[in-house]
Each structure stands twice: as structure tokens, then as C-alpha cells.
Write a structure and sequence with these properties.
The structure holds 2 protein chains of 2 kinds.
Chain A lengths: L3 H6 E4 L18 E10 L2 E11 L4 E5 L6 H8 L7 E7 L2 E4 L11 H6 L8 H10 L15 H13 L5 E5 L7 H18 L2 E6 L2 H7 L2 E6 L2 E7 L11 H13 L5
Parallel strand pairs in A: 4-8, 4-9, 6-7, 7-8
Antiparallel strand pairs in A: 1-5, 2-3, 2-5, 9-10
Chain B lengths: L1 H8 L6 H8 L10 H4 L5 H21 L11 H14 L1 H33 L1 H15 L7 H8 L3 H25 L3 H9 L4 H35 L8 H10 L3 H29 L10
Helix pairs in contact in B: 5-13, 6-7, 6-9, 6-11, 6-12, 8-9, 9-11, 10-11, 11-13, 12-13
The chains are: A alpha/beta, B mainly alpha.
Chain lengths: ~260, ~290
């Protein structure tokens, strides 16, 4: 059993049925611990005995073709999907930014940012978070008038204001145009370095993976098929020789080039 | 022209039709901007002219005697009759009585409808208990309940208000229920990842999300409130617009009947306007309203 301290840090997501094991002893050296994770949709096995460890402060990128189960994994880690079997341990404090910003359209931007925090909505807290993503000037607007990039930044501010130990990002840049995407990727790198939380970013953009990750995992058939540590110095140059080489290796693993 | 030069350079087309087209002079047209196009009579005047022509026709027909007063009083008679009713204070008293009935009925029926919709929208047990009953009762025309209401409540104010309450409960119930059930699931999920409790989800995500539908339900309810009012006031009324009308019927005063019809219409329009203002304020977050 976990000690009381560890219980504060770690919140096991327990599946229903015999797979559930209750609280799991986990050291401070892991932020995420997944063992033999299985998830089926009808007859289709989406996750087939997946193992995953993420260290505190580590930036992990999960790559894979559409429908390979990467979003399913993220939903399980976000405590949104409970119909799984296996062992899943995640930090109690975690936050999610989805592909669509999912801001409540009937609350102003700053109220969206602090929604769900304990106590009365604190404008100062929201403004500080919006400042970080350069969106303070839009604090009193309705979310529907924001551009795609602005809404996504508001969504990031809403995630980071919770001081998460684990930040889950589900293709947050997929719907942005190319120029906005580059800016948003740089912003995420900067925010991650400042906050020091563990990040799991799900994407199908190979360049994005090499740009941001400490470690890249390639999913295939419901399991981690390949893993790659990325030791390039930050900030990374998209055109550097080693960057291009890693990119090519990933594309090979994904079966795009041979 | 350049176009002709290009055509000349292009390979010789075959076939009569194409060859003919190639020989054509290119036609140019000027596309005028919207400001230059809007000429002549302003839109408002054009739209108003239809009803005004109808009014004129009505006036001419009654002045020439083709439309006798016993069938339908002319506009002039209607106008003078309005003035008389206002001077005697009869019309004001009738309007207040009717307005009171409609709004009291709506308040009671609307509260019940919204409360039941919230219960069956939010809780599965509530849905099982309430929704089937409501969907069943909804198919009964509320007007058909008048005989039963008279037996239950007599012939005073109670059956009239009960009829309006019954009629208005259902549109609000159906729309609020649908609104709650149609709330964007992705927003509920997002709220959950933000750590909102069940009560917090209902307060911050579900109920605001159902508001647009609720306001649609309110407008439907108001429409049927007037309808139920007209029917309710035909039964043994001793005050109100309906009473004024049935009195006028006894004495063949068609001008008073027309005045009452106009009042019903004006009341309906006024209340609809109030709901529109309510929508603009409460739904200002929707892009459609951001310009106001």
C-alpha cells in the first residue's frame, strides 16, 4: 500500500471488475505507470497489453496512425474512460487540453480559465495564467469570438492554472494553420520548461514530436511498438541534420517511407 | 481584344457550335455594388404598403356599404369604438384581467414544466418516472380538458388559469428536456477534467447549455398561453377581453370584436418582444448576438 504522502501525489485510476487492484505503491520517480493496459470496443482490441512509464517532468510524445488507440490511452489517463483492464497510476493533479479548445461559450475567457478551481473565481489568478500565453487582452471576451489559435492558448492557460503534475495534450495543434501551429509549439515548449510538469502529447505530426519530446513512443496495434530518446539541444532546429535523421527514422517506423 | 488574341492562338476548334462561339464578340457587363443598386422606394415603405392597401380596401368597402357593419365594422368605426372603450376605462380593465390570467397561468405551468424537465433531463430515474407520463399527456389537446376543468374548479378564475397552466407546461417541458439532453458531451467531459463536481457540472455546463432551448420553449409557451386564454375566456367570463368579446357578440357589435382581436395581437407581439430582449441579454455569448 502507498504511504499517505504518496497517496496525495498519486491517484490510481482503478478499472471496474477483477482488474482493479486499488492503491498502488509508486515511488516519486514515476509520474505515470501503466501496466498491461487492455481496452476493447466490441470485438476490436484497441489497447492490447500496453506498458508505459513517464518520469516526473518528462516530455513524452505518443505517435501513431489514426485509430491506433493513442487517444484512447489519453482518455484513460484523463480518467474519462473507465472500461479498461490493467493497472493505471497517474498524478492526482493533472490537466487536459483537447484538440478542440472546449471552452464553455457562455463564460468569458478568464472565467473559463479558473473554472473548477476551489473557491470563488479569482480574476488575478486567471490573468496571471492568461499573461503566460499572451492572451490577457482577451480576458473579458466570449470564447466564440477568439481565433482558433487564441482559443487553444486559452485552453492551455486553463490547463496550466491547475499546476498539474501531468499535462495531457490530445493533438492540440491539429486544427491550427501552419504558422499558428509553429508559434503554439514553441509556446508549449516554453511553458513546459517553466512549469516542469510531465507531459504526454498525442499527435500524428512527426516533426512536432522531434521538436518537443524527450522521448517518442510509436504506437502500433495497441502497443508501444518503438521508443526513441531525443537528446537534441533545445531549442531545436527543424533543419538540422540530426533532426532530419530522427524524423526519417520515425517515418520509417510509421511505415510511411522505406 | 486580348481574349480574341488568345482564341486566335488556341488550336482551331472543331464543330459548328464551338466555332460560332469563337467568332462571337466577348460581351462585358458591369456589376454594380449594392449601394448603387438600392434605388427607388425604401424597403420599409414597400413592406408597409401591402397592409396599408388592405386597410384602404376594407375602408372603401365599408364606406360604400358593400361590407355591412353587421358583418364587419369598418376601420373608422373600429377606431372610434377603441376611443370610447378607452375613455370608459373598460378596455384597460379587460386588458389587465386577461394579462393577469395569462401570466399567472404561464408562471404556474412554466414552473412545473421546467421543474419536471430538469428532473427528467438530469436523472435517469427521473426520466423513467416523468418522461413517459409527460409524453403521453402531451398528446391530449389541453382545450379538450375544459369540461373537466369546469367540473373540478367551477366557473371562476381557477379553471381559466388552470387551462393556461396546463397548456404552457408542455412546450417548456419538451424544450428544456431536449436542451439538457443535447448539451455538448465534449464540454461535459472538459468540465470533468477541470475537477467540477456533479453539482458544478449541472450549474456551469448543463443548465447554461440548455438555456437557448429553454428560451425557445418559453416563446412556444407564450404563444399557447394566448390561445388558451382566448378559449378560457369564452367560458362564463365576467371580466377580461373574452368577456368584452362575448358581450359584443350578443349585441352584434362587430367593431368591439375587432378591437379585442387587435388587442390580443398587440399583447402577443409585446410579450414576444420582451422574450427577444431576454434572449439578446442571456445569450449574448452566441456569435449571432455579439454585434448588438
Amino acid at each position: 500500500m502507498a504511504t499517505s504522502l504518496q497517496r496525495d501525489l498519486i491517484d490510481p485510476v482503478v478499472p471496474p471488475g477483477p482488474g482493479g487492484t486499488g492503491a498502488v505503491a509508486a515511488g516519486r520517480s514515476t509520474a505515470v505507470r501503466v501496466r498491461n493496459l487492455r481496452r476493447t470496443f466490441g470485438a476490436q482490441r484497441v489497447l492490447a497489453g500496453l506498458d508505459l512509464d513517464i518520469a516526473p517532468g518528462e516530455f513524452v510524445v505518443l505517435l501513431g496512425a489514426s485509430g491506433c488507440g493513442k487517444s484512447t490511452l489519453l482518455r484513460i489517463l484523463a480518467d474519462l474512460d473507465h472500461d479498461f483492464a490493467g493497472e493505471v497510476v497517474v498524478p492526482a493533479r493533472r490537466a487536459v487540453a483537447f484538440q478542440a479548445p472546449r471552452l464553455l461559450p457562455w463564460k468569458s475567457v478568464w472565467r473559463n480559465v479558473v473554472l473548477g478551481l476551489p473557491g470563488a473565481p479569482d480574476r488575478a489568478v486567471a490573468m496571471a495564467a492568461l499573461e503566460e500565453v499572451n492572451l490577457a487582452h482577451r480576458a473579458d471576451q466570449w470564447p466564440k469570438v477568439l481565433s482558433g489559435g487564441e482559443a487553444q492558448r486559452a485552453s492551455l492557460a486553463r490547463a496550466l492554472v491547475r499546476q498539474p503534475d501531468l499535462l495531457l495534450l490530445d493533438e492540440p495543434f491539429a486544427a491550427l494553420d501552419a504558422l499558428t501551429r509553429i508559434k503554439a509549439q514553441d509556446l508549449v515548449a516554453e511553458l513546459w520548461q517553466r512549469h516542469g510538469c510531465a507531459v504526454l502529447l498525442v499527435t500524428h505530426d512527426v516533426e512536432e514530436a522531434v521538436l518537443l519530446a524527450d522521448r517518442i513512443l510509436v504506437m502500433h496495434n495497441g502497443q508501444i511498438a518503438h521508443a526513441m530518446r531525443v537528446d537534441l539541444v533545445r531549442p531545436r532546429q527543424r533543419s538540422s541534420v540530426s533532426f532530419v535523421a530522427l524524423r526519417r527514422q520515425l517515418l520509417e517506423w510509421l511505415g510511411v517511407v522505406h | 481584344m486580348i481574349a480574341q488574341l488568345i482564341r486566335a492562338a488556341a488550336p482551331k476548334p472543331r464543330g459548328a457550335v464551338v466555332a460560332l462561339a469563337a467568332n462571337d464578340e466577348m460581351q462585358l457587363i458591369t456589376i454594380a455594388p449594392a449601394a448603387a443598386r438600392a434605388r427607388g422606394v425604401p424597403r420599409l415603405v414597400r413592406r408597409a404598403s401591402g397592409p396599408l392597401l388592405l386597410l384602404l380596401l376594407w375602408h372603401v368597402l365599408s364606406v360604400t356599404g358593400l361590407l355591412p357593419d353587421t358583418v364587419l365594422a369598418g376601420p373608422a368605426t373600429v377606431l372610434s369604438s377603441t376611443a370610447e372603450l378607452l375613455a370608459s376605462g373598460e378596455l384597460q380593465a379587460a386588458i389587465w384581467t386577461s394579462l393577469y390570467r395569462a401570466l399567472t397561468g404561464l408562471l404556474i405551468g412554466g414552473s412545473v414544466g421546467v421543474a419536471l424537465a430538469t428532473i427528467s433531463g438530469l436523472f435517469r430515474l427521473g426520466e423513467d418516472l416523468v418522461d413517459a407520463v409527460m409524453q403521453m399527456l402531451r398528446t391530449v389537446p389541453s382545450i379538450a380538458l375544459i369540461p373537466l376543468l369546469i367540473i373540478w374548479f367551477g366557473i371562476g378564475e381557477a379553471p381559466k388559469i388552470a387551462l393556461i397552466a396546463l397548456a404552457t407546461a408542455f412546450p417548456l417541458y419538451i424544450n428544456v428536456y431536449a436542451g439538457i439532453r443535447n448539451v455538448d458531451v465534449t464540454l461535459v467531459e472538459a468540465g470533468r477534467t477541470l475537477g467540477l463536481s456533479q453539482a458544478g457540472l449541472i450549474r456551469h455546463v448543463v443548465l447554461p447549455g440548455a438555456l437557448p432551448n429553454a428560451l425557445v420553449g418559453l416563446r412556444y409557451s407564450l404563444a399557447v398561453a394566448w390561445l388558451a386564454l382566448v378559449f378560457g375566456e369564452q367560458i362564463n367570463a365576467t371580466a377580461g377581453i373574452g368577456y368584452l368579446m362575448s358581450n359584443a357578440r350578443e349585441f352584434f357589435q362587430t367593431q368591439v370584436i375587432v378591437v379585442c382581436l387587435v388587442v390580443y395581437a398587440l399583447l402577443g407581439i409585446t410579450v414576444d418582444l420582451i422574450v427577444r430582449v431576454l434572449e439578446r441579454t442571456l445569450l449574448s455569448w452566441r456569435p449571432a448576438f455579439s454585434g448588438t
